[in-house]
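Q:
Just now I want nothing more than another pair of eyes on a protein record. Here is the record:
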Amino acid sequence: MLTLGEYHTLKIDRDTDPGLFLNNEAGDEVLLPNKYKPKSFEIGEEIEVFVYLDHDERPVATTLTPKVKLDEFAILECAAVSDYGAFLDWGLEKHLFVPFAEQAYKMEVGGKYLIFCFLDEESQRLVASSKVNHFVDNTILTVKEFDEVNLIVTNKTDLGYNMIINDIHLGLLYFDEVFEDYKTGDQLKGYIKKIRADHKIDLTLSKFGYKSIEPNAQKVYDILKDNNGFLPYHDKSDPKAIYNTFKMSKKAFKKAIGSLYKDKQIEILKGEGVRLKS
């Protein structure tokens, strides 16, 4: 059976009036309509397609690239609203449906929403939900402390930003780790800072320990060279100003400066900044 919402590499079985019929080794077949038919092809040749349901709820193949596939998160724009729910533009001819019951807030045409695409077991249709926290789970963790992870911003809280980790788990990036404003759907790299006894996860954007000192020291050194060997940053500087220049936390900056100072690469001018040694 061909999984909806996924890419499949299929063989071209036959050319018909409505388009090419494709199949796999198990004998499952699907139509690739003429509008997506390659200009040149051979029977028996393999082709990669995306499979979903057409307007008549029949499986159909396309060579278009959707903005999201099965079991993925994405930011999509609402293209239409009906009495049954909302319809999102996901780059395909037929829009992706979001039932009212799966809307965290009522969707409006033109609005952009973070959603999760899944297969509804009852209707066997691909649908989306903006209740994204329902699709992450920290019961069985697949990450450990200090791991580098992929993050998606979900929402801002009183403590910081909730983040989806590797499309699986939920974690929190506290405000004291943040030096710029993020919006829902932003994607970034981060690290597992702490895993609590209840499996809640604290996040950071900075690397840890000795692994982070050398790259950050090199980064500070390079930026100093690009600025005539001097920059007006020191241990009293504003953390946001440091982040805007070096894209690292004040703590990481101070470690980098300490490393450069120890190696006699710089001199620290108290209350003024740092300067490369000539």
Q: What stands out?
A: Residues 209-226 form the longest helix (18 residues). The chain has four domains: 6-62, 73-133, 137-204, 210-276.
